[in-house]
Amino acid sequence: MSTLPESPTPTKTTTSTLTSQSQSQPDTIDMPKPTGLVMQIIVRRDLLNVHDWPIGPLLAQSAHASTAVLHKYRDHPDVKKYLEGEDGRGWEGMRKVVLEAPNDETLREIARKLDNLTNPISYHIWIEQPENTPTALALIPNKRPKQLKKILDEHCKLFE
């Protein structure tokens, strides 16, 4: 089994590739150049606290929303840059932040405000089926413009 070095240098990282036969030895590679893009994923906190969802299914909702928004907007320049990066390895340097909204009403209010931005930012709300329940909202990768920061700061906090 490979382990990460105790104090990696800022420009190098250790990675391992899992093959169908065995795990290879770690390779030292150059870190991808940062794009400055961040994906925000907003999850409903009440699903955990009020509706007694287990944490695993709630985490799956954020994965569903983030995968869906990347697929839905795969041709958007910021999504391409997020996935490809400056050097073709953007996926190795992806940045995400998971936020919480208190409930469904707040999630919908955030969506309304995103739609009304001067420069709207694309997003996807994941609706869990068959319950038809909105569970998470994922925004396309962005540089967190001031208008977006204001909306997120007003309605969300870091998921804890």
UniProtKB/TrEMBL annotation:
Name of the protein described by the UniProt record: peptidyl-tRNA hydrolase
User: Keywords of this protein's UniProt record, alphabetized?
Assistant: Hydrolase
Its UniProt entry gives the catalysed reaction(s) as: an N-acyl-L-alpha-aminoacyl-tRNA + H2O = an N-acyl-L-amino acid + a tRNA + H(+)
What InterPro entries does the record point to?
Pep_tRNA_hydro_II_dom_sf, PTH2, PTRHD1
Q: Which domain of life is it from?
A: Eukaryota
Q: What is its EC number?
A: 3.1.1.29
Query: Origin organism of this chain?
Result: Kwoniella dendrophila CBS 6074
Q: Where is this region: Disordered?
A: 1-33
Q: Where is the composition biased (Low complexity)?
A: 1-28
The UniProt entry, under Pfam families, shows:
PTH2
